[in-house]
């Protein structure tokens, strides 16, 4: 028997990422009074941020205003603001500037940020890739390095300027390294006069024994081969021990090597957003070392059935008992689950179960690896799957068909139209 | 008889705007050793900046990397850098950071910047629209004002937050005011819950007796009517006498009126770039009150046939003896003229003559005014002319066909995909 519908109270969702937005859409469509609060006025399609960082797309191409996504639902409100605290006795969410939002149910989906494992000084030297500003900073560094190389008379200094080290061999690192290698070898091939961009070095540094460790070993091998064909030097068992201005030091088998590299990019890990501090203070929540918040089987906080935590911020367990990875599909499914739960559409003892549909990582212009569990693809077929999945998502959200067509075309023509250096350029 | 070709020496072009780039293309195609220096790595299609400011386009859509424009020509070099001085005896251009470029011929095309007629404090309160950063700042202010209005309980304060004053009734002011009015009345129509965006006030303030003063009076009247249909309040004979935080004071017929308005945008005038200071110091150049540099009939500096000044920076005279306006077509034609002159393709006593092909200004989603001299268009036909001219330009430069198709589509669907607030949002 289907459970009786119960009238949902006021729902406040903190964070308009994949988890928050999927929850909001289900709640809004059901007519529930829902409010989404975010520091930004847009939802960002983070899986394509590496394209913004390498000049293939503009930030507007992968961002959808949260308001437009929810505009058809008069019961849905969007608030631009930073949530600074929660007041559980009064059931209020406090926003910087003094505004307050009353909730009956709270969904916290504030995501994650790059983690430097305690080396906070590295943050300024090796930007990560989580926000639009991150991506524009990476873009600025990459293109400014080529520009400085054009004016550099010394050969060794020029080689350092055109050496790009990507730290971390997960999907983001693989995608970033592949895109930079293609940028140097194809897009910029004839742009410079004082040096050949094709001689740029792109290093992908991974601490473990293979890149893409969450994929089957066969796909890691194929990804490595694809990257090497693009000219990326893939180094495994390589731990970064120091990042200085203009170089980084890597430890491989207890031997330290210092590599002159003007541009170091960080894709080695993330930690849960620091908003989890508030959950610890106000709800005695418990966290793992990565800052993720322990939740019950229905994704609520223990002892607080009115507070749900989803997405990268949540420490939820999969079937095997291992924590679920911080992936967009996990956050999306969790968002939909808690929305149904709030609407009374899930039975009393319902548990969240992640349906793993597979994983994708793209390597340069026309290769990818794709693990659908039983089926594995690589190369061009995997790339087609990857393109299809991403186009489908962006169309669902903002009808950005032509953006994707344009981008597909620039993939074919190897052009990158969004190569603006918009920070103060050369000092 | 065609003049004999002479081998051109090294040409350095300062500035990659319309003037500089048109000169560079002709010189590059002829095989001349040419270097373009710019502070930015991209050429910006300024006539569409108002679309970036109102969320219709991304910066990358209207920017072309200067390198890609010139990549086919191995004789053409592009340098990213700020020119800080010129050393005429050594024929060097000095770049911040210490690099130097040797020239035989110098083309200075550094353009113009917003002018506040001595009210420099207004600069921070009423941003102009000349750079990508300007446009993103305007975008941030416009969308943040709507966001703050959503949280503002007081009716009068909310009205002030949704009042937008555009100062200056030239083409930029007309385009900006029209775009903001459409944004409020169409794009954002269903986005907010606490107020109706259609009740936003958009003021266009012009000091003279009509907007678009360089157009025939009939087109000014039609433009006024089109703007009013969009909901813009057009005020002529209105002089801004003060801009404060949250309000501006306008003097009309010796009566001062203070209008609460959170967002004031400046389109009232430009002055030549301050690089003209260097031309005064190094070449004893003379300037008009707007900072424009006097040039001879062939656009060179008096007494310095090896130095050309073109575009908004140059005070060149038209047929009637009046100074030529600071328009893209003027700069383009001047760029081509000096390139031909440098290549020896113009006869000895050649004078630059501006071929006026007409003027265009667009008003909102599907109206424009278009003055082709004998023929005048307005409304939708003029809009089609306007679209055609702009598409033709962008295709010529960067093959941005799909950008324009996408943009045309969002014109039809009234969507604006690039509504990112990328500065720190709400304080």
Q: Largest sheet of chain A at a glance?
A: 6 strands, mixed
* Helix content percent band of chain A: 25-40%
- Whole-number tally of structural domains of chain A: 2
Arithmetic mean pLDDT of chain A = 90
Computed structural class of chain A:
alpha/beta
Q: What is the radius of gyration of chain A?
A: 22 Å
Low-confidence stretches of chain A: 1-5
CATH superfamily of the largest domain in chain A: FAD/NAD(P)-binding domain
List the main descriptive attributes of the protein structure presented here.
four-stranded parallel beta sheet; six-stranded mixed beta sheet; homodimer; FAD/NAD(P)-binding domain; disordered N terminus; 12 helices; alpha/beta; 2 domains
Describe the overall structure.
- 2 copies of one chain form a homodimer.
- Chain A has 427 residues and is an alpha/beta fold.
- Chain A folds into 2 domains: 11-114 and 271-342, FAD/NAD(P)-binding domain (3-Layer(bba) Sandwich); 122-268, FAD/NAD(P)-binding domain (3-Layer(bba) Sandwich), CATH 3.50.50.100.
- Chain A has helices at residues 18-29, 49-53, 66-70, 122-125, 132-151, 155-161, 171-187, 217-230, 276-283, 328-342, 379-398, 401-413, and strands at residues 11-14, 34-38, 42-44, 63-65, 76-80, 83-87, 92-95, 100-102, 105-108, 112-114, 163-167, 201-205, 232-235, 238-244, 247-252, 255-260, 263-266, 270-272, 293-294, 300-301, 304-309, 314-315, 359-363, 367-371, 376-378.
- Chain A has a 6-stranded mixed sheet with strand order 5-2-1-9-21-20. A 4-stranded parallel sheet of chain A has the order 13-12-11-17.
- In chain A, α5 runs antiparallel to α6.
- Residues 1-5 of chain A have low confidence and may be disordered.
- Chains A and B meet through β4, β5, α5 and α12 of A and β4, β5, α5 and α12 of B.
């Amino acid at each position: 028997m289907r459970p009786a519908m119960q009238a949902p109270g006021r729902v406040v969702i903190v964070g308009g990422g994949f988890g928050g937005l999927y929850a909001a859409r289900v709640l809004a469509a059901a007519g529930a009074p829902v409010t989404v609060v975010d520091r930004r006025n847009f939802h960002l399609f983070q899986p394509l941020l590496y394209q913004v960082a390498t000049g293939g797309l503009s930030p507007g191409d992968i961002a959808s205003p949260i308001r437009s996504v929810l505009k058809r639902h008069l019961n849905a409100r969007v608030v631009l603001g930073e949530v600074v605290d929660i007041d559980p006795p009064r059931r209020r969410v406090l926003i910087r500037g003094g505004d307050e939002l009353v909730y009956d149910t709270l969904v916290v989906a504030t995501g994650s940020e790059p983690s430097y494992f305690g080396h906070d000084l590295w943050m300024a030297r090796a930007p990560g890739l989580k926000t639009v500003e991150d991506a524009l900073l990476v873009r600025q560094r990459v293109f400014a390095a080529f520009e400085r190389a054009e004016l550099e008379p010394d050969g060794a200094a020029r080689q350092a300027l055109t050496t790009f080290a990507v730290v971390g061999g997960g999907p983001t690192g693989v995608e970033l390294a592949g895109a930079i290698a293609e940028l140097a070898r194809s897009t910029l091939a004839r742009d410079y006069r004082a040096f050949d961009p094709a001689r740029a070095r792109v290093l992908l540094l991974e601490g473990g024994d293979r890149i893409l460790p969450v994929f089957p070993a066969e796909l890691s091998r194929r990804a490595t081969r694809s990257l090497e064909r693009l000219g990326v030097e893939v180094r495994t068992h390589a731990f970064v021990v120091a990042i200085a201005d203009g170089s980084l030091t890597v430890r491989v088998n207890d031997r330290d090597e210092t590599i002159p590299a003007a541009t170091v990019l960080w894709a080695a890990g993330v930690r849960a957003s620091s908003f989890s501090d508030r959950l610890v203070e106000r709800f005695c929540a418990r966290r793992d070392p990565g800052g993720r918040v322990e939740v019950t089987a229905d994704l609520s906080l223990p002892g607080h059935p009115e507070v749900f935590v989803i997405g990268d911020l949540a420490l939820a367990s999969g079937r095997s008992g291992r924590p679920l990875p911080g992936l967009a599909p996990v956050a999306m499914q969790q968002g939909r689950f808690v929305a149904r739960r709030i609407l009374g559409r899930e039975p009393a003892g319902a548990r969240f179960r992640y349906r793993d549909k597979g994983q994708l990582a793209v390597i340069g212009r026309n290769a990818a690896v794709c693990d659908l569990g039983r089926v594995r693809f690589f190369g061009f077929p995997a790339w087609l799957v990857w393109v299809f999945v991403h186009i489908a998502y962006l169309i669902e959200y903002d009808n950005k068909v032509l953006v994707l067509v344009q981008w597909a075309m620039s993939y074919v023509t190897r052009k990158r139209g969004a190569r603006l250096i918009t920070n103060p350029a050369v000092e």
